[in-house]
Specification:
The complex is a heterodimer of chains A (113) and B (112). With 113 residues, chain A is mainly beta. Chain A has no helices and 11 strands. Chain B has strands at residues 4-7, 10-14, 19-25, 30-38, 45-51, 56-59, 62-67, 72-77, 86-94, 100-102, 106-111. Classes of the chains: A mainly beta (113), B mainly beta (112).
């Protein structure tokens, strides 16, 4: 089975801190995604990457950046965390053909205080 | 506008009973529809994925149906168990697109 691992289950950060959320997948998938999930809003796409060093903005990229230096690792960066970025963050990956199912990580619950 | 709507928002049933969750979508052109189960505080886990030509797919006690003409899908859970308590999310993807359109989910609680 494909495994998508997010480095932290829970994080508490202070406003203004730089925050790194890490995601690693072990099946050589080309495509990796970062979503945030908020009650009543469902999952919203922040950024995705279709290859090493390639990235595209999703629906809500403001306040976030990403890094993909290696195929298996996709990092989400909050340059200056704010309280409205308190959320559940989910990483996902799929192989090159989009018709296959996404595999999600377990999620990181980020609280910004 | 591409949208996925799920009903009901929440549902409480007794252990051992059956239930059906609904999903209506307006995504076009349609590629596939997926049902995910998400336990509290965890990431979604895939239950089923169906393409245009498939109208039913089962995964154990979970059976998903798809009516591409009416753009409706349902997830039927048979003989519910306490471990079925979770959110169930319907997700639709447009043809040849990386983008997924997520429903807001149905929160199911199974009581003993």
């Amino acid at each position: 089975d494909v495994k998508v691992t997010q480095s932290s289950r829970y994080l508490v950060k202070r406003t203004g801190e730089k925050v790194f959320l890490e995601c690693v997948q072990d099946m050589d998938h080309e495509n990796m995604f970062w979503y945030r999930q908020d009650p009543g809003l469902g999952l919203r796409l922040i950024y995705f990457s279709y290859d090493v060093k390639m990235k595209e903005k999703g629906d809500i990229p403001e306040g976030y950046s990403v890094s993909r230096e290696k195929k298996e690792r996709f990092s989400l960066i909050l340059e200056s965390a704010s309280t409205n970025q308190t959320s559940m963050y989910l990483c996902a990956s799929i192989p090159g053909r989009y018709r296959y199912g996404y595999t999600f990580g377990s999620g990181t619950r980020l609280t910004v205080v | 506008k591409n949208q996925v709507e799920q009903s009901p928002q929440s549902l409480i049933i007794l252990e051992g009973k059956n239930c059906t969750l609904q999903c209506n979508y307006t995504v076009s052109p349609f590629s596939n529809l997926r049902w995910y189960k998400q336990d509290t505080g965890r990431g979604p886990v895939s239950l089923t994925i169906m393409t245009f030509s498939e109208n039913t797919k089962s995964n154990g006690r979970y059976t998903a149906t798809l009516d591409a003409d009416t753009k409706q899908s349902s997830l039927h859970i048979t003989a519910s168990q306490l471990s079925d308590s979770a959110s169930y999310i319907c997700v639709v993807s447009a043809d040849s697109s990386y983008k997924l359109i997520f429903g807001s989910g149905t929160r199911l609680l199974v009581r003993p």
